[in-house]
Structures are given as structure tokens and as C-alpha cells.
Amino acid sequence: MFELKIFENIFFWAVINFLILYLIYKKFFFQRVTQFMEKRSQMIQEQLDFAAKSKEEAIKLKEEYENILAEAHAKANEIVESATLEAQRQAAEIIENAKLEANRILEDALRQFEIEKKKQINELKNQFVSIALLAASRVIEKNLNTEENKKMVENIFDEAGVA
């Protein structure tokens, strides 16, 4: 049916054809394709290296920012605590000053009260002295008996408003 000689010739020419094409491709294309693949591989590797380096830098920056943020929080807490202590100190100082002022006002009021009390006592003494002198002068003028003297002193006190 088939002749083996024809098949062998076709096979022979196919192998020759394949070898010629291989040599042409090798001469003109394999080197370029290999160079292109190497350049592409090198470019990919450079991009991977750059990405890894960028990632490391980003991690370092993140850590630095986190440290800065932690320091800022600590400083803010310190400022708040300091302000709170200062406010408490000022409040205590204000309270102490208010107590001192209240005591001073109270002492002034007590002094004023004592002064007024002494004035009133002196006025009462003066009034009693005046009444007593008035009574004595009337007793001496009339020189009456003891019963009349007693009534007269009572009348003088009634007139002066002393019960």
C-alpha cells in the first residue's frame, strides 16, 4: 500500500527542514529571545528588589511614626497631668485665700461688734449716770423722806424709759 521509500524521503526532508529552520532560528532569533528573556527577568528581579526595599522603608517609616505618635501621646498625657496638678494647686490656693479672707472679715466683724458693744455700754452708763444725777439732784432739792425718795426715783426711771 504505502511505499516506504516515499515515507523515508519525506521523513528525511522533514528532518533536514527542521535542522535548517533550527539553525536559522538559532542564528537570528534564539539569541534575541534569550537576551529579551534575560532582560525581562532582570527587570522583574529589579522591580521585586525595589518593592522589597520600599516595603522595608515603609515598615521603618511606620515604626518611626508609631514611635513619634506614642511620644506625642505620652507628652500630651504629661501635659494634661501637669495641668491637672496645677489646677488643683491653684484651687487649693484659692480656697486657702478665701478661708483667710473669711477669717479676716469675721475678725473685723467681731472687732466692730466689740466696739459697738462698748459704745452701747458706755451710752447706757452715761444714761444711768445722768438719770442717777437727775434723781439725786431732785432728791436733794426736795429733801423728802425715804418713801417719797423711792417714789421719785421710780418716776424718774419711768420717765427715762427704764423698767
TrEMBL record:
Gene3D superfamilies tied to this protein: 6.10.250.1580
Ubl conjugation as UniProt keyword: no
Coiled coil residues, start to end: 51-123
Transmembrane portions of the chain: 6-25
Cross-referenced InterPro entries: ATP_synth_B-like_membr_sf, ATP_synth_b/b'su_bac/chlpt, ATP_synth_F0_bsu_bac, ATP_synthase_B_chain
GO function terms (MF aspect): proton-transporting ATP synthase activity, rotational mechanism; proton-transporting ATPase activity, rotational mechanism
Membrane topology: Single-pass membrane protein
Residues in the signal sequence: none
Protein localization: Cell membrane; Endomembrane system
GO cellular component terms, A-Z: endomembrane system; plasma membrane; proton-transporting ATP synthase complex
Pfam families: ATP-synt_B (PF00430)
Keyword flag Magnesium: no
SUPFAM superfamilies: F1F0 ATP synthase subunit B, membrane domain
Keywords, ordered alphabetically: ATP synthesis, Cell membrane, CF(0), Coiled coil, Hydrogen ion transport, Ion transport, Membrane, Transmembrane, Transmembrane helix, Transport
Family named by the database record: Belongs to the ATPase B chain family.
Function recorded in the entry: F(1)F(0) ATP synthase produces ATP from ADP in the presence of a proton or sodium gradient. F-type ATPases consist of two structural domains, F(1) containing the extramembraneous catalytic core and F(0) containing the membrane proton channel, linked together by a central stalk and a peripheral stalk. During catalysis, ATP synthesis in the catalytic domain of F(1) is coupled via a rotary mechanism of the central stalk subunits to proton translocation.
Subunit and interaction comment: F-type ATPases have 2 components, F(1) - the catalytic core - and F(0) - the membrane proton channel. F(1) has five subunits: alpha(3), beta(3), gamma(1), delta(1), epsilon(1). F(0) has three main subunits: a(1), b(2) and c(10-14). The alpha and beta chains form an alternating ring which encloses part of the gamma chain. F(1) is attached to F(0) by a central stalk formed by the gamma and epsilon chains, while a peripheral stalk is formed by the delta and b chains.
Protein name per UniProt: ATP synthase subunit b
Record organism: Caldicellulosiruptor acetigenus 6A
Taxonomic path: Bacteria, Bacillati, Bacillota, Bacillota incertae sedis, Caldicellulosiruptorales
Gene that this sequence comes from: atpF
